[in-house]
Amino acid sequence: MPADRDTREHVGGPVTVDTTLGYEPPLDWQGLLDWYRYHALDGVEVVDDERYRLALALPHGSTLVELRDDPGQDRLAARLELADAADHDAAVVVLRRMLDLDTDPAEVDAHLRTVPVLAPLVARRPGIRLPGTPTPFEAVLRAVTGQQVSVAAGLTQLHRLVAEVGTPSAEVGALQPFPGSAAVHPFGTGWYHGTRSRRRALEGVLDLAADGGLDPGLDPEATGAALHAVRGVGAWTVASTLMRGHGAADVDLRGDRALVVALERLTREVDLPGVLRPASPWRSYAALHLWTARPLGSR
Prior knowledge:
Blueprint: E1 5-6, E2 15-22, H1 29-38, E3 45-47, E4 51-58, E5 61-70, E6 75-82, H2 88-98, H3 105-112, H4 119-124, H5 136-146, H6 151-165, H7 181-184, H8 196-210, H9 220-228, H10 235-246, H11 257-266, H12 272-276, H13 283-291
Antiparallel strand pairs: 1-2, 2-6, 3-4, 4-5, 5-6
Helix pairs in contact: 5-6, 5-8, 5-10, 9-10
């Protein structure tokens, strides 16, 4: 894997750094772009045919990130507009986890090709990566607000959250990070316009986050156990949070209706657990292949 590097020395204070993020090929960069475009949150991230731009909250302030592939070089090119140069390494850590750049795609693909229904999907999209979020907190809010509703409906809830809690810049077209738990908790769940049961689950999630139970540095098993204890948070929400917020490679998404529908379109086999079981220890990647077997947003 090519070593990460940047093109200038950093000193204290704001700085723009051009750096690279190496990966083991192949990398399904187009698949990542498609996922982030379909789930993009206005004001937080922007995706076009080649680039992914987003804002990150880092220890010394907000950082604007622009990512693009560097064809033939086995690396992504990243431009980081850092509030403080001291945040460079933290930004790289977040991006590598979020984009699943430390995975060995050859190992994942080789295993998934042994599952008959997955083999043609792997052949079509080698090097698929788990599209993560910057934090587990964002992952769980996306999971709770997006459960059993359309992607557009879930994003509408989060747009309201960003509008009410976020700190937009006066600069036209500027991006802001997804609000952190410290910012959201004092506002409660007034931004959420949905069912009472889901509102109660969100209240529990906000309390858990305020107590440090969703910190990115926690062990994923500890995060999962803490989420399972929150009233109204089910197994699907926990699995989705661990996959997107921690990069967990082997979550159990057997209750996902979209996966069942995708499987039915591919084969007469409707035993989703039976298909996912032999995909272990890479069930998260198997689920992603099924979700994206057809273009995102198609019926």
